[in-house]
Design brief:
By secondary structure, the chain is an alpha/beta fold. It has helices spanning 18-27, 43-47, 56-62, 73-80, 85-91, 104-116, 130-135, 146-152, 171-199, 204-213, 219-230, 239-255, 261-275, 286-298, 305-310, and strands spanning 5-12, 32-35, 51-52, 63-68, 95-98, 120-123, 126-127, 138-144, 160-165. Strand 5 (95-98), helix 6 and strand 6 (120-123) form a beta-alpha-beta unit.
């Protein structure tokens, strides 16, 4: 078994985003060793020439740079065995690249612990959904020690179209949350506009054509508006993930004493979409929550508590 190979990159977390990201690295010729909690998710990487580790500790033994694309801080702590004697032994001399989206303060604490263990830490959240991940067109935001950031930057070329240096931790995550605030409110607004046009009997295709011809058109509208038109809720960025990001942004806003009125309305709507059973659908499924509110209003039903608090 290879131990701490300088030319081997570890990748842990092969979910909706992680799998295409790791595949792009493998196909670019990056030597990879991977692990995922669900073993069958590793098979495409094995077929692409990657090695499959027995467990996360095996990844840390075999690679000096380890990319984490995990759901939350609890998952990161688990694979790194944070809080146990194994943490320092596994992290000494390694560079951890945290590409998931977590609380900024969590990331700040993780950096301190990894550096205390003799390792290096780079915060590297990405902007983009499944489609850009598959195409290698994500946008990365990096934060951390300049030397570590400089080492990681070229590694991300097969995965990202652009990479931005954001300064110290947790500024990359704060940048990601800022961008996501705009994304969440924009897609919710698009869904509401589509609902308005649709319920007035307007031609759905013409609505998309007018939108696409005007100044509001964007890469997001061109991706999401056809999904609304076709009621295609196959997940590119799932409602549950958006709700989690919404919560992270709201918490960061509250900690800084900032108002986030549009985000708060979106938080209520995405929560209602989850309650209606659409948590695993694409974020445009927030349309279901908007439709449900219209149907309740048309039927003279009392508003939900979340509707009242959002007004």
């Amino acid at each position: 078994m290879e131990t701490g190979g300088t030319d081997i990159t570890g990748f842990i977390g092969l979910g909706t985003m992680g799998l295409p990201m790791a595949l792009n690295l493998a196909r670019s010729g990056t030597p990879l060793v991977v692990w995922n909690r669900t073993p069958e998710r590793c098979e495409p990487l094995r077929a692409a020439g990657g090695a499959v580790a027995a467990d996360p500790a095996d990844v840390l033994r075999r690679a000096r740079t380890v990319i984490l694309m995990l759901a939350d801080g609890a998952a990161v702590d688990s694979v790194l065995r944070r809080g146990t004697p194994h943490f320092a032994a596994g992290l000494a001399g390694r560079t951890v690249v945290h590409m998931g989206t977590t609380e900024p303060e969590y990331s700040r604490g993780l950096e301190a612990d990894i550096r205390a263990a003799g390792g290096h830490y780079v915060e590297a959240p990405v902007s983009g959904s499944r489609g850009p991940a598959e195409a290698g067109e994500l946008v990365a935001m990096l934060a951390g020690e300049p030397e570590a950031v400089a080492r990681v930057r070229p590694l991300l070329r097969p995965v990202c179209r652009e990479v931005f240096d954001c300064g110290p931790v947790p500024d990359a995550l704060l940048m990601k949350l800022s961008v996501n605030l705009f994304l969440i409110t924009m897609v919710t607004g698009l869904a509401e506009a589509f609902h308005f046009a649709d319920r007035h009997g307007l031609d759905r295709r013409q609505f998309l054509a007018v939108l696409d011809a005007g100044p509001m058109a964007s890469g997001v509208s061109r991706m999401k508006a056809p999904k609304l038109r076709d009621r295609d809720f196959d997940a590119q960025a799932g409602v549950l993930d958006v709700l989690k990001n919404n919560r992270l942004i709201a918490e960061a806003a509250r900690e800084s004493g900032l108002a986030s009125p549009l985000l708060d309305v979106c938080h209520a709507l995405f929560g209602e979409a989850v309650a209606l059973g659409h948590g695993r659908d694409d974020m445009v499924a927030v349309l279901h929550a908007i439709e449900a509110r219209s149907d309740r209003a048309a039927g003279g039903a009392a508003p939900l508590a979340s509707e009242a608090s959002a007004c």
